[in-house]
Amino acid sequence: MVAGKNLSCICGASVDASSLIIKRTEGGGYRIVCPSPKCPLHELGSAKVIRSSQPKFEVKLSRMFKDWNVLLVGRESCDRLVRDLLKQISLKLRKFY
Ligand SMILES: [Zn+2]
Q1: I want to staple 23 with a disulfide (CB 3.0 to 4.6 A). Which of 31, 91, 92, 96 is the partner?
Q2: How far is the CA of 54 from the centre of ligand 1 (A)?
Q3: Count of the separate structural domains present in the chain
Q4: Residue 40 CA, ligand 1 centroid: distance in Å
C-alpha cells in the first residue's frame, strides 16, 4: 500500500491536481474524475461555480474517496492533503474563466 504523502483512488491510481480529469457538465458544473480509465469509482468528486462574475468554486470530494485515504495515510495527513487538493482544483478551475 502507498503510505505517506499522496492521495490515491480506491483503484490504486495516484491522485493529485495534475492527474485528475476535470470535466464540465451540461449544467455548468464540473465532474472530478479519476485519472485511471479502468476505475470502478470513476467520479471522485464534483465542483460548482458559486458566483460567475468573480468565480468561486465549491469543490467536493466523495466520501468514499476521503474515507479510503484516511485508512491509507491517517486522518491528519488526509485532511491536509484533501485541503491542499481542493485548493489546487479551485486554482485550476479559475483558469477556465
Ligand atoms: Zn480510480
Answers
A1: 31
A2: 32
A3: 1
A4: 7
CA of 46 to the centre of ligand 1 (A): 15
pTM score, whole prediction = 0.88
In a domain, 2, yes or no: no
The b/e string for 9-36 (b: 16+ C-beta within 10 A; e otherwise) is bbeebebbbeebebeeeeeeebebbbbb
1 occurs within a structural domain: no
CB 51 within 8 A of CB 38: no
| pLDDT tens readout for residues 18-41 | 999 999 999 889 999 999 999 999
Strands 21-24 and 56-61: unpaired
Domain that holds residue 75: 7-94
Reported as a single tens digit per residue, the pLDDT across 41-85 is 999 999 999 876 788 899 999 999 999 999 999 999 999 999 999
